[in-house]
Design a protein that fits this description.
Structural class: alpha+beta
Number of helices: 2
Strand content: 25-35%
Order of helices and strands: EEEEEEEEEEEEEEEEHHE
Number of strands: 17
Strand order of the largest sheet: 2-6-10-9-8-7
Shape: globular
Mean pLDDT: 75
Largest sheet: 6 strands, antiparallel
Low-confidence stretches: 1-51
Distance between the termini: 23 Å
Number of domains: 2
Length: 229
């Protein structure tokens, strides 16, 4: 699935919009310099490979590219999670947050207080005033009381913080295999998976326990005629 990120204005920049190639998400969070979450962006280091539609996040040596906030996608990445907050809903994928704009999705900053079941695949751990924070794409996360991770405002002293040494990387859990028992095509399979992702977030503890979320998605897909292993 190819996503065209483009600004709402001006029209002259539309032809230069970067394409994003998105792969399935991994529930296994990694320390800094981990995977890029499936996005294919400019090469690291900037220069002639950089694009105004992508931004290199250098803070805390994070060194990852993300689509610029304010750009609009014609669709969501496969596996994006729908998360309700306040009177609206947001979509989360690999550290990038989306907000619906008509039939499209704008890249936005997440609201403070929203909770996700897992961290982005790539993040930078920080230790600020005796509290462990996780940084990715301009946002700070802390462990939520009941599980999961909460988006919080930049803490005092964040500008002077230094990244923690990386922990030994655990072997990522393999992505589940989804088999369409009823012969569903790829487009229908992806549509069903996104709907199951949205339904899974409504289940008790799903937004604060990744295993609950994953089991809910598997149960939903099974009910729609898929085998998940």
């Amino acid at each position: 699935m190819m996503l065209n990120f483009k600004p709402l204005k001006p029209a002259a920049l539309l032809a230069a919009t970067m394409l994003m190639c998105v792969a399935g998400p991994s529930a296994q969070a990694q320390e800094r310099h981990g995977g890029h979450g499936g996005y294919v962006g400019p090469q690291r280091g900037g220069g002639s490979h950089a694009s105004p539609h992508w931004q290199l996040d250098r803070r805390y040596q994070h060194n990852h590219y993300y689509p610029s906030r304010g750009y609009v996608s014609i669709g969501l990445p496969p596996g994006a999670i729908s998360i309700g907050h306040g009177r609206g809903s947001y979509f989360f994928h690999s550290g990038v947050w989306f907000s619906p704009v008509g039939s499209r999705y704008r890249v936005v900053a997440p609201p403070f207080g929203i909770v996700v079941p897992v961290l982005p695949p790539a993040y930078t751990p920080l230790w600020i005033d005796s509290t462990r924070y996780y940084y990715a794409n301009g946002s700070y996360y802390t462990a939520a009381t009941d599980g999961g991770y909460t988006v919080v405002p930049p803490p005092p002293g964040a500008e002077q913080a230094r990244p923690l040494p990386p922990l030994p990387e655990a072997k990522p859990a393999p992505d589940p295999i989804i088999y369409p028992r009823s012969g569903q095509n790829a487009q229908q399979t992806e549509s069903d998976r996104q709907e199951c992702n949205r339904w899974a977030t409504t289940q008790p503890a799903a937004q604060v326990d990744a295993s609950v979320f994953q089991r809910a998605v598997a149960a939903c897909m099974d009910g729609r005629g898929y085998t998940v292993r």
